[in-house]
Design goal:
Elements lengths: L2 H7 L11 H8 L15 H14 L13 H11 L3 H18 L12 H11 L8 H5 L8 H18 L1 H6 L15 H5 L7
Helix pairs in contact: 3-5, 3-6, 4-8
Length: 198
């Protein structure tokens, strides 16, 4: 199997997210308190890393943060319940790599890391459009996710899970509970510039 085909099949790859009723029900079932949340699939350390990364990607502003919308719980549950075994192993390996980068000494406690540690990780490995993934260039046939591919996929999943939540869909995005009409026109005129909710 070619690498591109494998990444298409990998549910965690960028572009994977389609808000099907099953995915929405998984998202709506995530109601744990972040402080007491115990991951189903990830280790406790990996869960802490996930929680911190999603809050760097979508921090609290005048809107709730990603953790307030239960995005880490959703990602963990999605990987556990939707991905196949091979994809789960790739995600687990990628999270292990992130943990080892964040704390090179295994005996160091993960909860002592600061937001700056997580920002530095994202700044170093998350690519923007047009940048070259040197890790992929060096190993083009590898089926493993590079650090950049993993973090960009995590960002994509975080954003899509966030905008799919009921609270964001009904209070931030333009919401039509009975979408029967077709609207044609400028988004600014139709919704005040807000995107339509799912």
């Amino acid at each position: 199997m070619k690498r591109r085909e494998a990444l298409k099949n990998l549910g965690f790859a960028t572009g994977f997210f389609v808000a099907t009723p099953a995915i929405v029900s998984i998202l709506q079932s995530c109601t744990s308190d972040v402080k007491t949340w115990v991951p189903e699939f990830l280790t406790l350390e990996q869960g802490i890393v996930l929680t911190n990364l999603v809050d760097i990607i979508l921090p609290k502003t005048d809107l709730p943060s990603a953790t307030e919308m239960n995005v880490p719980q959703f990602i963990d549950k999605y990987v556990n319940e939707v991905l196949d075994i091979e994809s789960q192993e790739q995600v687990k390996a990628a999270f292990s790599t992130m943990v080892s980068i964040l704390k090179p000494k295994t005996e160091d406690p993960i909860d002592k890391l600061t937001p700056q540690n997580y920002k530095a990780l994202l700044d170093k490995y998350m690519l923007i459009k047009g940048e070259i993934d040197e890790e992929r260039v060096a190993n083009p046939e590898s089926l493993e996710l590079t650090k950049s591919e993993f973090l960009n996929s995590l960002k994509w999943m975080t954003i899509n899970a966030y905008v799919t939540t009921e609270q964001i869909g009904e209070t931030v995005l333009k919401y039509d509970p009975i979408p029967a009409a077709y609207y044609c026109g400028d988004l600014q005129e139709l919704t005040g510039g807000r995107s339509w909710s799912l």
